[in-house]
Amino acid sequence: MSRVPRVDACLIVRDESVNLPDCIESLKRLGSSLQRICVYDTGSADDTVAIARAAGCVVVEGYWDNDFARARNASLDMSRADWALIVDADERVVADPARLVRELTQQRGANVIDAELYHLDERGQRVAHSRYIKAVRPRSVRFVHPIHEIVTDIDGRGISIHSVAPNVMHFDHLGYASEQIRRSKAERNEAVADAALHVALQSRDAARIAHAYQHRGRSRTLLGRDEDALSDLMAAWQAWGAGSASAVGAGRDLIRRLTAANRTTEAMEVLRRLEECGAQADLTRLLLAEVLFALGHDEKVLALTADLVPARDSARETRGTVDTREVLGLRVKALGRLGRWDHVLATLLTLVHWGEVERVGQIVRMWRGSTQALAEILADLGTGPHGPAVLAALRASSGVGPGAADIIEHPLVSRDTPPHTSAQGSRAAADGHNVRADNDADNETAGKQAH
């Protein structure tokens, strides 16, 4: 019988007296499956350290030197467990402890776990999501790069990633809830990237220089400094060299910024060179589809992306290096511009199925059928792994949304027709003239960028 793995949580914190108590409380809900909470403090001036110690955490009072990777590694050094959860104070872990332990027990080959992280707004509604490395074997890996740190192996085994489903473990992130917080963090990250770039340029290490330019470019994008961001991403691409396999991430970011700036000819040239770097065909096809969307070729976008979408019951929402939700989001916009609203609805439902609960409001705004009919096509989503978030999104919406949430929550309410709980069923509902293309839905569908 396999030994139950020991699990610690490792945090790096600074002046987190507001966020830390709720973070610790969420970790303690893991019960006996969590061995220790290890807190590496980087120089708090508030009550963070006292709060952590009072809660029974193991605390090290460390220092801050503009290097997130070093601080992460210092927190890992505090762990004696088989697995270390990577947690920030503005995150809340939501997990099924028994299922999490079972999955960790079965992962003999993996040394890294990624999980879904949902970004919440001021009202606690999901507004975005992405997958992050959220657990590692602390004696097998280390973090590298001062900002936007990534993991690398230290035992020669390489990196092997296992993805956990959201109903096993996911994280709610409050760190970008307001515009002021988002800007403050982007400014902090830009300063860290500036310092990293200064050191990298002195070292003349092409890889370090490329990473520093790329991460500063991302921070400047968040700050709305598009020209500066584009300049940095171009520098990162050039530093890697067009023939380097490591250039794929920089090339992807550069193509998307060039496309956003309507510099599609340059984007196509970088894409051609990216293919020469050995980038996976799925990724280059998606990037080509994004450029074609910017040029208004919606039918070509749909044809290019048709086989990038796996079955809805697929075990993963990724295909190779491509997140299927990016593909579906692009298809929603192309379908919207073509006025194919039944297909838009079906695709939006699939996106919600895979965790994009922020799409619920868009579905409600498109809906012109009955409250009962909306509840029927959302029934499986309202009782699935994202159920609480789906119901909360319905209640936060206008029109028939709150009523649909009531029907889903109280299944004894009579129904005149069987529920439509699949993409096929949603199309049937749409064909019954239950959806509409109003200005809000049209703008949201066709107006957003694919990145």
- Which geometry do the CA atoms define? globular
Strand content range: 5-15%
Q: What distance lies between the first and last C-alpha atoms, to the nearest angstrom? A: 46 Å
Alpha-carbon Rg, integer:
23 Å
Nearest-integer average pLDDT: 86
- Classify the helix fraction into a percent range: 40-55%
Q: Which structural category fits the helices and strands?
A: alpha/beta
Can you count the beta strands? 13
GO molecular function, one term: transferase activity
Region (Disordered): 413-451
Protein name: Putative glycosyltransferase
Domain Glycosyltransferase 2-like: 11-136
Please give a structural write-up.
The chain is built from 19 helices and 13 strands. With 451 residues, it is an alpha/beta fold. Strand 8 and strand 9 (150-153) form a beta hairpin. Mean pLDDT is 86; it is low at 313-319, 414-433 and 438-451. It folds into 3 domains: 7-173, Spore Coat Polysaccharide Biosynthesis Protein SpsA, Chain A; 179-279, Tetratricopeptide repeat domain (Serine Threonine Protein Phosphatase 5, Tetratricopeptide repeat), CATH 1.25.40; 318-447, no CATH class. Helix 8 (248-260) runs antiparallel to helix 9, helix 12 (324-337) packs antiparallel against helix 13 (341-353) and helix 13 runs antiparallel to helix 14 (360-366). The strands form 3 sheets. Strands 1, 2, 3, 4, 5, 6, 7, 10 and 11 form a 9-stranded mixed β-sheet that branches. A two-stranded antiparallel sheet has the order 8-9. Residues 413-451 are annotated as: Disordered.
